[in-house]
Amino acid sequence: MKRFINSLIAVSITVLALFHFNDAYSQSPPQKKILVDVAHGQRFWHDPNDMPGKDSSLIQRVKYMAGELTRNANAMGATVMYQKKKFTPASLKDVDLLFLQGVGGKLDENETAAIIGYVKNGGRLFVTMDEDYWGTLDQININDIVKPFGIEYKQDNPDRSSGGYAKAGIIAKERWSIPVHGARIVEGGTPFCYIGKGESNPFGIYKEVENGGRIIAMGDGMVSLYMTRWENVDNYQCAQFMQDVFSWLMK
After folding, report:
1. Would you indicate the residue range of the signal peptide (predicted)?
2. How does 176-190 read in b/e, with b if 16+ C-beta sit within 10 Å?
3. Is residue 86 part of a domain?
């Protein structure tokens, strides 16, 4: 009997050890992280859970955008976080994608250096810069961040028509219809988003840089605000486009 009990104990210990090993082995990898900047004068993007005193219509809009972004992120096994202070190398550590949409003011030298270092070390950046109506290049120093990678935002695009598309290819799996109006010219990468139906007025580019870094730079932010309606069009494919953007950036 004693031998049987000792054998049973030994078997139990072995089974428990195997259980814990298999449990640890089968655990999902840690979630990826998308960091959304809300610390630099953004007019539209905010943390939806931290908007005291804001207009109710803006709160509703932000919750809608955050819900769409979260759905896109979850499809990539990612979680969404919000940057509410100045950027530092520590704040960008373990971030898989920096979402720099609609900056409304200047980032200081330390912040730009932190973001540049992040991308140079393999970080992924999604960045927008709208036309002068929302802020000039003197007021918003986005070029300080992207110029080291051969990308530059220029003057307003002369094409003032509404509506555009993303060309099927490396980024977009299909030709997506996306909103645009009054975009800014952006150069230095491979164009894939265009105003109108042709390819004469690009407003979105992508670029791979050293050490695995990737950048998508948009000269208009409407699609990343998930604006499915604009100028008598109510079926722009914002979520589909953003899903493809995230897929490429975080691959």
Report:
1. 1-26
2. bbbbbbbbbbbebbe
3. yes
pTM score, two decimals? 0.88
Task: Kindly report the average pLDDT of the chain as a whole number.
Answer: 90
**Residue 85: which CATH number?**
3.40.50.880
Domain count, the chain: 1
- Does residue 17 form part of some domain? no
The DSSP secondary structure of 173-223, one letter per residue, reads SS-EEE--SSPEEEESSEEEEEESSSSSSEEEEEEE-GGG-EEEEES--SG
Could you tell me if residue 130 is left (phi over 0), alpha (psi between -120 and 50 degrees) or otherwise beta?
beta
**Any domain includes 149:** yes
Residue-level pLDDT at 52: 94
Residues 6+ away with beta carbon under 8 Å from 163: 177, 179, 180, 181, 195, 196, 230, 231, 233, 236
Is 115 part of a structural domain of the chain? yes
**pLDDT score for 26:** 43
Name the residue range of residue 79's domain.
30-249
pLDDT in tens, 109-121: 999 999 999 999 9
